[in-house]
Each structure stands twice: as C-alpha cells, then as structure tokens.
C-alpha cells in the first residue's frame, strides 16, 4: 500500500468506532447417544419372561459368557462361540442409559425377527469407563437376552468382533418363517 493510499484510508476512517467484542454463540448441543442398527420396519412384539436365572459363568472364564436354551444343540452354541454363524445385523449400545439400552435392544431384536435374521451382534462395551460401580450394560444385557423367548443362545464375541464387550446372539425365528442364515 502506498503512502498516499494509507492517508486516504485514515481520512475515510476518521470518526469510525470499532464494534464491541462479541462472544461467539455457543456451538450446537452435543447430540444424544443413539443406538446404531440396521434399518427395518416396525418392531415385532417380544415376550420376556418375568425372571430367568442366568448364570454368566463360562468354562473359559475371563468375563466370557455363554447361554443356550434347553433344546439348542451344543454344536450350535460351539459354532456361535467360534464366530462361525454369519452375523446379519448389529446394534451398538455404547453411551446409552440402562433404560434406553433395554428399549433399543427390544426394538432391534423385534426388527431382526421381522427381517428373519438368524444371528446378530450386540455391542454393549466392556465398561472400562464405568467408574466405581463397574460395568452395567455388560451384566444386564445378558440377563435381558436370557429372558427373551426368541433368543436361542448367545456367547461372547471373538476378540476381533468385540470380545467380552459384545455378544453373538442366535435368534429363534417365529413359527412359519424361514431363516436366511445357517443353523
């Protein structure tokens, strides 16, 4: 800028007052946690037993869980635990409250049954940041799953699929429907 241009600019700006400093508006609010799962139609109703004793122990220990209903073959549970049943859908429950998790899980499983999915993965997390109370979802999700009549079996996922922070869930399809997945 030349000397003449600077003088002209100063003359033009004579008497101009700077605007007061303004705080920028706060950013958008953090969105609420939402369970992620495949799209589908309205959820099928699920029947839950009022209480079902669930023993979370597993022969492997180390926080792994396994469950199967009477009548489910041992081989089916073994294949599920090895990750040999194709996973056709999944839900991630990280960040949800206990109540929101229960509702999201019911809706997801209802949609999975409507879509005739045979095996789904439920990611509940390991609860590493749960504080002094310890993991909540890691313990209540298997309890809830064991009470849902259309859940035939479930087992902790392989390490590559979430390990003790996720479950493979084998669904029993309602009578009169065909499965797309392997038995």
Major sheet strand order: 1-3-4-6-5-2
Classification by helices and strands: alpha+beta
For the largest beta-sheet, the strand count, sense and barrel status come to:
6 strands, mixed
Poorly predicted runs are 38-44
Helical content band: 25-40%
Look up the CATH topology of one domain: Ribosomal Protein S8, Chain: A, domain 1
For the record, the CATH architecture of one domain stands as 2-Layer Sandwich
Protein architecture, described:
The chain has 183 residues and is α+β, with helices and mostly antiparallel strands. It has a domain at 71-173 and 179-183: 2-Layer Sandwich (Ribosomal Protein S8, Chain: A, domain 1), CATH 3.30.1370. 25% of the residues lie in helices and 14% in strands. It has four helices and six strands; from the N terminus they run αββαβαβαββ. The chain has helices at residues 3-12, 74-81, 98-114, 137-147; strands at 36-37, 66-68, 89-92, 119-123, 151-156, 166-171. It has a six-stranded mixed beta sheet, sandwiched between helices. Strand 3 (89-92), helix 3 and strand 4 form a beta-alpha-beta unit. The longest helix is centred in the middle third of the chain and has 17 residues, at 98-114. The radius of gyration is 27 Å and the shape is rod-shaped. The relative contact order is 0.20. The model is unreliable at 38-44 (pLDDT under 50).
